[in-house]
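Narrative of accomplishments. A recurring question from our advisory board has been how the design workflow behaves on a single, concrete structure rather than in aggregate. To address it, we present the structure tokens for one chain from the evaluation set, followed by the sequence designed for it. No filtering or post-editing was applied between the two.
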């Protein structure tokens, strides 16, 4: 059993800290916000993530998972300190390292024994050396430390499962002994562990996210070509995905990618590349295609209604993907903005993200209790997030409640022929309707 400390208690810090506690380690999670910390002790979580609440409560009660706001209490006793703070986009698209820097200073000031600092945040290439430099400069005594990069690959919505069943663990360090000690923490998970240098580990994270975003943008470009040429992108993706060299994942055409990672990570990689004299044309195209997807959806609503002026548009789904309440860079916010800019009034519903959505959309939209309320009196209904709940709606009732039966399926969750038979004017992404 090792003593672990996690700095940053968001999607990554809280999930990985709790899962490491569940593997038998003694874990302290450090939060800056006292109220959040007190709530966590009572089992009240700041985020929604399937299975996490029960895991936090169980490990807290078992005395393996602790919450504090005090760096001294969290760091002094730890053998490993994980940095899991946010690295949002800066003004030029670069990753903003303010929180990482603060965390490194906090660690330096509180370290009293040899410590391995593990960077889980997604950070620009070279940030491991940056963290090491800060700790060297600000540590109080001459305490030994090593920095290990350990990028995180969990997906919101299945984060606990992903942590417990990783495809791989990536570690980067110049200190092989420190890297091996971190690798030992993961041995119960029985997965391939790749140990490399700091910069390569940091790049693996950016390259992985950029590649996944590229796959989605690729199929979205194919979907708009399908639309013009009368092919069905769903079958195209299925046919491509059966090829073992391609595989089926991340080939769903729709309104594009969003969330807290892909947008900022693709931007940050493009920024780093450009700053170092490269021409990241593919990354730029990947981002541009993604923006186009939002515009394509709005264009479909406009085409179906003639004009958006004074139209009532219902939006189903607000979170950037199902099974999370995360609204960061969610396609819904951009789509709602475009719809309102053209004069539409917007009514919304999401199974989980309603509370978080209020912080992003304020009182600019009408919040509804359920999908049927959204449909009531709407001129068009737009599916933005593919929650399972929306796949099982009583579509006859939905159509009857609407003022005009216009259904724009931004995630291809319905069958075009069925929707047509039910009397909808139905449009989707890249399929003949
Ligand atoms: P988040 O915003 O959910 O959580 C970050 C937490 O860090 C917040 O609770 C914030 O209050 C806290 N924090 C910031 N500065 C702090 C400080 N100095 N001391 C203590 N706490 C501090 O972010 P997240 O989604 O968990 O992402 C964290 C990092 O992991 C990012 O770099 C992200 O790119 C990366 N990542 C995220 C995911 C994901 O799916 N969310 C997946 C893989 C990697």
């Amino acid at each position: 059993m090792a003593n672990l400390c996690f700095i940053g208690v968001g999607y990554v810090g809280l999930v990985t800290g709790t899962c490491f506690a569940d593997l038998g380690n003694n874990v302290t999670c450090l939060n800056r916000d006292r109220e959040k910390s007190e709530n966590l002790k009572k089992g009240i979580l700041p985020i929604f993530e399937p299975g996490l609440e029960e895991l936090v409560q169980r490990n807290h009660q078992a005395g393996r998972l602790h919450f504090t706001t005090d760096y001294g209490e969290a760091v002094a006793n730890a053998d490993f300190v994980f940095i899991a703070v946010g690295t949002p986009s800066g003004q030029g698209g670069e990753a903003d390292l303010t929180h990482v820097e603060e965390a490194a200073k906090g660690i330096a000031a509180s370290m009293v024994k040899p410590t391995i600092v593990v960077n889980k945040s997604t950070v620009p290439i070279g940030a491991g050396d940056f963290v090491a430099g800060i700790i060297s400069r600000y540590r109080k005594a001459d305490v030994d430390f090593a920095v290990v990069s350990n990028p995180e690959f969990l997906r919101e919505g299945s984060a606990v499962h992903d942590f417990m069943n990783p495809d791989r663990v990536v570690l980067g360090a110049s200190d092989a002994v420190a890297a091996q000690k971190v690798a030992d923490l993961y041995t119960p998970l029985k997965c391939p562990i790749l140990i490399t240098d700091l910069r390569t580990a940091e790049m693996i994270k950016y390259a992985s996210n950029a590649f996944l975003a590229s796959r989605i943008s690729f199929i979205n470009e194919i979907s708009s070509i399908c639309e013009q040429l009368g092919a069905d992108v769903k079958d195209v993706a299925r046919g491509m995905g059966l090829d073992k060299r391609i595989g089926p994942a991340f080939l769903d055409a729709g309104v594009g990618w969003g969330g807290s990672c892909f947008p900022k990570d693709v931007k940050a990689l493009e920024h780093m590349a450009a700053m170092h004299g490269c021409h990241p044309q593919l990354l730029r195209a990947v981002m541009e295609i993604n923006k186009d997807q939002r515009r394509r959806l709005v264009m479909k609503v406009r085409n179906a209604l003639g004009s958006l002026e004074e139209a009532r548009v219902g939006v189903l789904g607000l979170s950037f993907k199902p099974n999370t309440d995360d609204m960061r860079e969610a396609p819904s916010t951009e789509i709602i903005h475009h719809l309102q800019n053209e004069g539409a009034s917007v009514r919304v519903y999401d199974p989980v993200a309603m509370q978080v959505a209020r912080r992003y959309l304020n009182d600019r939209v009408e919040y509804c209790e359920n999908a049927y309320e959204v449909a009531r009196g709407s001129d068009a209904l737009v599916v933005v997030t593919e929650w399972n709940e929306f796949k099982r709606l009583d579509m006859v009732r939905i159509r009857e409640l609407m003022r005009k039966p216009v259904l724009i399926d931004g995630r291809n969750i319905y069958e075009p022929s069925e929707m047509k038979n039910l009397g909808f004017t139905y449009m989707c992404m890249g399929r003949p309707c």
